[in-house]
Amino acid sequence: MKDLMRTAQELPLLSDSDIALNLTSQRIKAKELRDAVRSGDPGACERVQIRHPRPHAVDFGSFKLTDAQCVIAREAGLSSWPALKAHVESMEAARVAIEANTPAPDSDLRTLHIRCGNDIELGLKRAGFAGDFLMYSDPICQGPVSDLPDAIQVRAQFISSEYPGEDLADTISKLQGMDEILAKAKEYERIALWFEHDPYDQLLLVKVLAQLKAAGADSRKVELMSLHCFPGITKFIGIGQLSPAALRHMYAKREAVSAGAYQLAGKAWEALTAPSPLPLYELAARKTPFLPYLPDAIERYLAELPGLDDGLSFTERSILQILQNGPRPWGRIFRKFMQDTDPLPFHGDLMFYADLLRLTRAEVPPLRALPQNGDEEWGQHMFELTGAGRLLLDGDRDFKAYGPAERWNGGVRCFGDPDWRWDRIRRAPAASPSPAPVAH
């Protein structure tokens, strides 16, 4: 714990994006925008058309500073200039509270913080939180998922066989340990859940809520910190991007988990483990105020089913498209996919690497891993598209005919019977007839 605290104290309280989002710089930007719009600058006028809530009511010739401030605030991810001011002031208050070593924000109750990774563990310590931390990190958005007695063994077998460097016995021990802590979560007075909007987090949130309900921990104060964006961050991928001050600010906005959220989580967990994707799809189609990020996360997750027209998941097809112009190291493929391609990024690096390797293991592989050098750094292993891969991209083949390695999405066996696919046009699951096999 001492080593953890020493490392935590080295974290800056504010990130670069936090620092950039100060009122002085935002006022300057607003004045510059006002002047540019008044002078007829096309780019500035376009920004107003995109961001202003009532662009058709704006007089561009005498564009007001208040209108410019509204646009600047919305570009930063806030609804209005007063909202931007309130955010900046709240962040500054969080920073001052941390520096002044005020009582821990969670000191009023014995608290367990749960996060699907360890990316905020040090940040919470630096922000002054005192509760225990549980990293619940089973990527159930990939591979088989069930609620049968051998569920942990099945998950551990998948993780250790698909993700390089993962050991079966260690994985079983880790998964069992996480579930044991959840089973005893009722011993805490507060359970704080830190989950963002993507499929990795939302599906794990569903599982965690279902387990907390089963353990009777829903009788405790269970609170959720969940978001899909954060002011000042252009490409928000996850809570791990947040500074210690931002974590403290976010904690102040936590919300109690409702009875409706537990009910929805139970249904979603049951649907995730079903042998058909239809229950999960139908659940996502029913909009509710509970777990508001779950429907979009489910749709992105279902897009990982084999495509109706080519048998490729969204990720697999994106990988082949990125490699159309020549070989790349997989770290660069991953970066482009996360930053430019995926509308709802959820992959960790090992998860993405596993997708790449699985494409190379088909009987007729659409992807080839080039020979490695012994001194290659992590992420430098090169991959290239094969002729079979180009036929897939051209729409001349279906991946099922290439003898792909076994793959599961939750309770659905890909290329099974029925052969469940994702219709990209209708954005819905569909059963597909079997394509003819390809001669090897």
Which characteristics define this entry?
3 domains; 10% strand; five-stranded mixed beta sheet; 440 residues; 45% helix; alpha/beta; DUF1835; DUF1835 domain-containing protein; 18 helices; Arc Repressor Mutant, subunit A; Rossmann fold; three-stranded mixed beta sheet; globular
Into how many domains do the coordinates divide? 3
Radius of gyration: 24 Å
- The CATH architecture classification of the largest domain is 3-Layer(aba) Sandwich
Strand order of the largest sheet: 2-1-4-5-6
The major β-sheet equals: 5 strands, mixed
Helix- and strand-based class?
alpha/beta
User: Can you identify the CATH class of the largest domain?
Assistant: Alpha Beta
Choose one word for the global shape. Answer: globular
Helix content: 40-55%
Mean pLDDT value: 94
The beta-strand count equals 13
Strand content: 5-15%
What is the CA-CA span between the terminal residues?
A: 56 Å
Query: How many helical elements?
Result: 18
CATH topology of the largest domain: Rossmann fold
Low-confidence runs of at least 5 consecutive residues: none
Protein model, in words:
This protein is 45% helix and 10% strand. The chain is an alpha/beta fold. It folds into 3 domains: 17-94, no CATH class; 103-279, Rossmann fold, CATH 3.40.50; 303-431, Arc Repressor Mutant, subunit A, CATH 1.10.10. The strands form 4 sheets. A 5-stranded mixed β-sheet has the order 2-1-4-5-6, with no helix packed on it. The chain has a 3-stranded mixed β-sheet with strand order 3-10-11. A 3-stranded antiparallel β-sheet has the order 7-9-8. The chain is globular, with a radius of gyration of 24 Å. The termini are far apart.
